[in-house]
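Supplementary Methods, section 5.1.

A reviewer requested that the exact input to the structure prediction be made available. We therefore reproduce it here, unchanged from the version used in the analyses.
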Amino acid sequence: MAKYFFDKENLSDNEIVIEGAIAHHLINVMRVKIGDIVCFCDGEETDYITNLIEVYAKGKKITCVFVVTKVISCKTELKTKIRLFQGLPKGDKLELIVQKCVELGVFEIIPVNTRRTQFLNKNFEKSLNRLQKISLSAAEQSNRGIVPKIHDLIKLSHGIKICENLSDETILNFVAYEKEEIRTLKSIFLNSPTPKNINIWIGPEGGFDFSEINQLEKINAIPITLGKRILRTETAAIALTAQLQCFLEN
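The structure derived from this sequence is encoded token-by-token as follows.
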């Protein structure tokens, strides 16, 4: 069943009216016909199961009308919110990170400028729109109940302040660190209750330097190893998120 996110303002009298790019995709790409079932999500973990009842076309503009047959709670979200603080990588690697980590359940992604960031995009704001579209597409594909927000690029110090403002007993901070050899997620979760919030920190190419690890440890970030092999930054983000999913999924 196809799934799309929609604005609740388009819901009235048990009907959902869809126009624009989504309507075009439904009719011209997915070839949805009258009577077909489509799932819409309001981005607040509620799904609307619908049937297509009418299609209007005026020039290139298409309008679809769906009747809601069932309203259900989306059960795909993790109970623990995972925030990914991602050291800005080179090229289009962040697009891959966004796509795969959204599929794996992250709550939001915050790109971070670090000492070893090799290429600082001065026009990063222009990339945000595309990254958010990637998040939307990945959320639809993986049947998410929300669309994770992709934030603007921030400095490491700003990211630390965000964590300090969030700081309480229900939060764990993990930083993937290639020089850590002992502590793993498994060893920590065996001795800790499941937290309501987890912040994970991934360095860019070259990782975090020692001074940055020290700064992160001051907010009780726990350096952990992801294994005996050195992973690329994009692989580390995906691997750590996948490991967390194994511990948090129930």
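Residues 3-73 form a domain with the Ribosomal Protein L25; Chain P fold (CATH 2.40.240.20). These observations are discussed further in the main text.
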